[in-house]
Amino acid sequence: MEYNDTYQTIARKSEEVLFKEKGSKFFGYAFPIENEEEVKPIIEDLRKLHPHAVHYCYAYQLGTAPKISYRANDDGEPSNTAGAPIYGQIQSFGVTNVLVVVVRIFGGTKLGVGGLIAAYRTTAQMTLEVCEIVEKTIDVHFLISFDYKNMNKVMRVIKEKKLEITSQEMEIDENSGLPIGKIITKTRKKNAEMIFDIFDLMFEIDVKII
């Protein structure tokens, strides 16, 4: 079975870009994000940075197929003239786990629907063009639980399969009074089934996907 277990995103927050149209200024920013809770604080920071702006329009996409979530926000601009063209550029660049914000400072001349769409699309494009786009793997996380005496067996597999440990702890079992090891490790999606089976077949080792 072929797994598509990679995705593209931006390496870091973008530089500020500026697009001007008939006196209006459009400031563009892109941010790597992991969840939608990160969006609101970023918008609030941009409101403080540009207190005289009238629109803080944005779009974001999270996740990979088949579990993709996205949102496009016009923030008071005519419907579908800001958020949608910004989101269109996210799709065009093929990136996910990204937020693109375009802040508009009105210059006194109305741009019309077509002008707004073009301005927001162009600013979003310029913003993503200055970003470093990187490829990342879609990872699966495992919780491995074991008696302390079996730690060497577990660590040998982790080392042989080059698994990354994201957390590791020891605790005392309430019943036996003996130390229990708990390790959270991760591997890329295409290897997940094989790794799970290795641990699942090991005596006195408990593994589950989290």
Describe the structure.
By secondary structure, the chain is an alpha+beta fold. The chain folds into two domains: 6-136, Ribosomal Protein S5, domain 2, CATH 3.30.230; 138-209, Alpha-Beta Plaits (2-Layer Sandwich). The protein is built from five helices and eleven strands, in the order βββαββαβαββαββαβ. It has helices at residues 39-49, 83-93, 112-129, 151-160, 192-200, and strands spanning 6-10, 17-21, 24-32, 55-64, 67-73, 98-105, 133-137, 139-147, 164-172, 179-188, 205-209. The model has no long low-confidence stretch (mean pLDDT 93).
In terms of topology, how is this protein built?
Elements: E1 6-10, E2 17-21, E3 24-32, H1 39-49, E4 55-64, E5 67-73, H2 83-93, E6 98-105, H3 112-129, E7 133-137, E8 139-147, H4 151-160, E9 164-172, E10 179-188, H5 192-200, E11 205-209
Antiparallel strand pairs: 1-7, 2-3, 3-6, 4-5, 4-6, 8-10, 8-11, 9-10
